[in-house]
Design goal:
Blueprint: E1 2-4, E2 11-13, H1 18-29, H2 33-41, H3 44-55, H4 65-82, H5 91-108, E3 122-125, E4 131-133, H6 145-165, H7 168-177, H8 188-195, H9 199-221
Antiparallel strand pairs: 1-2, 3-4
Helix pairs in contact: 1-2, 3-4, 3-5, 3-6, 4-5, 6-9, 7-9, 8-9
Length: 223
């Protein structure tokens, strides 16, 4: 079964099930090039999902969708070729990063977008003084890939807003709770122990901080 993707004249095959994906990855690992072709073909819909985020009404909307799909497919192939089946991560999650990297390298080569933000660009520092890049704040767990892609630019905007509206403690709690410096999310109980305050107090600070961020972002959306 093929799926027609809105915005393109191409029908993309249905994604593989987890069991099918594992089987074809094992076959490709053992030298079966046909299995590689099947993996590429059945992940083209993922390429289209990623491409749409950069061309559908966004700041890169002038870039041709089919061109971005072609570039993204190169990233997909690189992702499949370099994928480590021993890692506890689905191919789609790993490949999405490779697809985005390839697309953004292509866009970066255009003078029109030289001043835009890219995955490797720094967005700040964590509380140990380590530099944080856009790539660091994109989670790689079991979140659906399209949701990861669609929220990336919102995270970047949120980081900017945080500098303006949050105090140091509020900012630190948000960084830890949502793993904005990379790594795993930290529970309210764990933060409470780190800061020597109660869990309920951490919860109140987090709620207040999220309210500030939300108000700031909503004010920017108003005409």
């Amino acid at each position: 079964m093929s799926v027609f993707f809105h915005g393109s004249s191409v029908c993309f095959p249905k994604p593989l099930s987890e069991e099918e994906e594992t089987r074809y990855l094992d076959r490709y690992k053992n030298g079966d090039t046909q299995a590689r072709n099947i993996l590429i073909e059945h992940n083209l819909r993922l390429v289209a999902h990623v491409a749409k985020k950069y061309t559908a009404g966004g700041r890169f909307s002038s870039v041709d969708f089919d061109d971005i799909v072609s570039i993204g497919t190169i990233g997909l192939i690189k992702g499949i070729d370099s994928f480590n089946t021993d890692k506890n991560v689905r191919l789609a999650t790993y490949a999405a990063r490779c697809i985005e990297n390839e697309i953004l390298m292509y866009i970066r080569s255009s003078k029109k977008y030289m001043n835009d933000v890219f995955l490797q660009d720094p967005v700040g520092h964590d509380f140990d003084g380590n530099e944080i890049t856009v790539m660091d704040i994109v989670k790689t767990d079991d979140d659906p890939v399209p949701e990861q892609v669609s929220t990336k630019m919102e995270i970047i905007q949120m980081l900017d807003d945080m500098k303006e509206v949050l105090d140091d403690r509020e900012r630190k709690i948000i960084y830890l709770r949502y793993a904005l410096g990379g790594g795993d999310e930290v529970t309210q109980r764990e933060i409470a122990k780190m800061m020597n305050i109660s869990r309920s107090y951490v919860s109140r600070i987090e709620k207040k901080a999220l309210g500030k961020i939300s108000a700031k972002m909503n004010s920017k959306r108003k005409p």
